[in-house]
Amino acid sequence: ASTDFETVNGTSHGPIIKRLEMTRASVLFVQEHHLDDVSTLVRAAARCGYKPALSPAMPTGAGGTSGGVGIFVKAHLGLDQVSSLDGVSAWTVDGTNNRASIAILRSGIRGGLLLISLYLHTSQSVVAEGNWLILTQIAKIIRALAMPFIMAGDWQCRPDDLRASGFLELVGGDIHSSGMGTCYSFVAESFPEIDYFVVSPA
């Protein structure tokens, strides 16, 4: 049977739960659930037949939260934490302010498939210090594990900008995108494509 992958930025946990209820994907990458307590998503995953790998959102000084990412995998598929490597805590890549979730899918590929969901900082270029730190932390993990991988997320930049950054060379990956706009910008009055996949070569 094939394994289908989907990514969604819900901007809050409500739309993410609705997508969980509707999708037929085997793996759902999510960004911006905005929950510092992820128990709501854990319960929703169980109800919808998924296993969760979640990184909680970070509290902000204004009493809100920022980000929050995760990965949902169909319950019949194997899902493990990266437990034998420095730089990973539970389902989260260290040093990313909980903006990168990581897990190993143990079904379909011998040795496993590394899954990463990420949410870069808004209003920053992909090579700005905060975003580049997240990407280099992820690159270290990918190189250390030497596993095939699928990354999905809100990259806050167009595919050509990510290509120009040098990140693909760091991880040995290729961009897989729809070629269509994914997020309307009211500031720029445009519909850029900033949500897509980076995948290791077959």
Secondary-structure map:
Elements (H helix, E strand, L loop, with lengths): L4 E5 L3 H10 L4 E5 L7 H10 L1 E6 L2 E2 L5 E2 L2 E6 L4 E2 L7 E2 L2 E2 L6 E6 L7 E7 L9 H17 L3 E6 L4 H7 L1 H5 L2 E3 L18 E5 L3
Parallel strand pairs: 1-2, 11-12
Antiparallel strand pairs: 2-6, 3-6, 4-5, 7-10, 8-9, 10-11, 12-14, 13-14
Polypeptide structure, described:
The structure is a single chain. The chain is an alpha+beta fold and 202 residues long. It is built from 5 helices and 14 strands. The chain has helices spanning 13-22, 39-48, 129-145, 159-165, 167-171, and strands at residues 5-9, 27-31, 50-55, 58-59, 65-66, 69-74, 79-80, 88-89, 92-93, 100-105, 113-119, 149-154, 174-176, 195-199. The chain has a 6-stranded mixed sheet with strand order 7-10-11-12-14-13, covered by helices on one side. The protein has a 4-stranded mixed sheet with strand order 1-2-6-3, with helices on one face. It has a two-stranded antiparallel ribbon with strand order 4-5. Strand 1, helix 1 (13-22) and strand 2 form a beta-alpha-beta unit. It is globular, with a radius of gyration of 16 Å.
In short:
With 202 residues, the chain is of the alpha+beta class. It has helices spanning 13-22, 39-48, 129-145, 159-165, 167-171, and strands at 5-9, 27-31, 50-55, 58-59, 65-66, 69-74, 79-80, 88-89, 92-93, 100-105, 113-119, 149-154, 174-176, 195-199.
